[in-house]
Amino acid sequence: MAVKIKNRHRLKEREVKELSTELQTRFGDDFLSGKVTVDIGSVEEFIVLLVDDSMDFMMQNNKAVFTLQGLLKHQPKAKYVVIDMGAVGFITKGADVMAPGISDADPLILKDDFVWICDEKYRKPLATGIALMNGEEMRTKKPGKAVKTLQYVGDRFWMLTH
C-alpha cells in the first residue's frame, strides 16, 4: 500500500549529524552511519523520519523514536524490555506493560526512557513505549505498570504503513 507522505523534505547534513548523535547517546549505536539520506514528513498526524525511504523513526515529544519497522531493520541492543509469551496478546492490543509480565529488561533503562518491547521466544519487536520504572525494577518484578505503550503491532500507525 502506498503511503502518502506530506510536507516531505530532506534534512541538512548538520541535522542528520545531530540526530545521529542523539540516537547514539540514547541507544549506544550509530544507526545513521555511512551515506544515508534522511527526510522528514508527515503521515496523517504522525511526523516520520525516512532513512533511505524507509520509515525508521517517528517524532514523539520532540525526540526521534524507532518505529516498529525501524526496530526490525536496525535491531538496537539497548533499551529492550522482554515480555513472557502470556503477555503478547495484551501488548499487541495496545495494553501497557505490567512488571510481572516482564522476563528481562536492559538494566540501564531509566524511568522516562524510550524502550522497545519484544517477546521472549522470537525477540521480535511488538511495541514501543516509555519506561515508568527503571530496568532493574522491571527485572525484579515490582508490582504495577512498567511501560506506557506508544506504538504497537496493529495500531493506527501500523495500519497506515502496512
Count of separate DSSP helical elements: 5
The helical percent reads 10-25%
Based on secondary structure, the structural category is alpha+beta
- Mean pLDDT rating: 94
Which shape, going by the Cα principal axes?
Answer: globular
Largest sheet: spatial strand order:
7-11-10-9-6-8
Quote the beta fraction: 35-45%
Architecture of the largest domain, according to CATH? Roll
* Whole-number count of domains: 2
CATH class categorisation of the largest domain = Mainly Beta
**Any low-confidence stretches, pLDDT <50, length ≥5?**
none
CATH superfamily of the largest domain: PUA domain
Give the total of beta strands.
11
Sheet bearing the most strands, described? Answer: 6 strands, mixed
CATH-defined topology of the largest domain? Archaeosine Trna-guanine Transglycosylase, Chain: A, domain 4
H-E string:
EHEEEEHEHEEEEHEH
Q: Output the radius of gyration.
A: 16 Å
> What is the chains' assembly state?
single chain
- State the distance separating the first and last CA atoms: 7 Å
